[in-house]
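Supplementary Note 3. Input sequence used for the single-chain structure prediction.
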Amino acid sequence: MSAAGSIDNIVLREMNTPLCEGEEILVEVAAVGLNFRDIMAATSILPGELEGDEAYWRNLGLEFAGTVRSVGPAVTGLAPGDKVMGMGKGFLRRFAKTHAGAVMRLPADADLKQAATMPVAFLTAHYALRQVGHLDADETVLVHLASGGVGLAAIQVANDIGASIFGTAGSDAKRSYLTDLGLGAVMNSRSLEFAEQVLTKTGGRGVDVVLNALSGQGIDKSLECLAPFGRMVEIGKRDLADDKPIGLGSLYYNNSYSVIDLSTLPIDKPRLFKKLLTEVEAKVASGDYKPLPATFFPVSETSDAMRMLFKAQHIGKVVVSFDQPVVDVDVDLSKP
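The predicted structure, written as C-alpha cells, is reproduced below.
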C-alpha cells in the first residue's frame, strides 16, 4: 500500500526476490485468501497495529497457497516443487519466504487457487471447535455467520466430529445456501430472535458450543443460547477492542467464554500451533477438509476484492490469484 487508511491505496510494486536462510523456504505464491484483518489494516482500524515495516498494512495477505522454489540450508522435509499452504503475514506478493515449519504440505494434485481458501478458515475452525470448544459427537454447535470462510470450515469440522449444527447468516441467499447444506436450523444473524429460536428448537436446553462472530447484543443473546456446561468461543474482534462488558450470570451453569486469536499462536504457543498444522494437514490430505467456495480476483483487481470482502457480498472466501500473464507494476528506478 502507498499509505494506510483507504483500500484505494493498494498498489502493485516491483520487489526483490528474497533469499532463504536457515530453516526458511521461498514460495512462489499462486493465490492469497483475504481476511477481515486485511481490511482492518488497510483502513487503519486494526487495534494494536504495529509500527514501521512490521505494520500489517505494509504486509497484507495472511494466508496463501503456492509452490516451494528454494529452501534454506537447514530445511528438511520440503524440497523445490512441493505444494504448500500456510498463514502469517505479507503473502500478497509473487514470491515470499517463510519458516519451513509454518506451512502445511498439500497433495501433488492440489489446485492451489482452491487451496488458498483453506489455511486461516480451517486452522481457526479446527482450533475453535476441537481444541477450545471440545465439541463432541453427541452435541450441538451454533455457528454464527456460517456462510463465511470460518463458518463454512466450521460446518465441515463439526460434520467430521459428528455433531449437530445450527447456523446463522445475514441474507436470504446465504441462509438458502446453508439450508441446502442440511443444517439442523438456519436463522437470521441480523435479528436477535435467533436466541429464542435456538431455545425453541432444543426444547429450552440450548446448544453446547457457540462459535461467535456477532457483536453487541448478539454476544449477550448467544450466551443465552448456551446449555449447561456450554462453551462460547469468540472469534470476533470489535467488542474486545471496545472492552464490552458481559454479565457473569450468563456463565452460571458451568458455562465458559473463550476468546481466540490464531495470529498469536505461532509466537506464544509454537508447539500448539505446530500440532494444529499437523492435524489440519492430515485432514486435508485425507479429504475430510475440502476447499471452500470462493470468489476469485486477479491480483490487478485486489482493491475490488477488498471491497467485496468489506461489504460481505460473498459466500465462503475472497481470493486474489497471481495467474495473470501480464500485470502493470510500479517500478523503483532508484534500484539496480
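The CA atoms of residues 6 and 204 lie 46 Å apart. The two ends are 22 Å apart (CA to CA).
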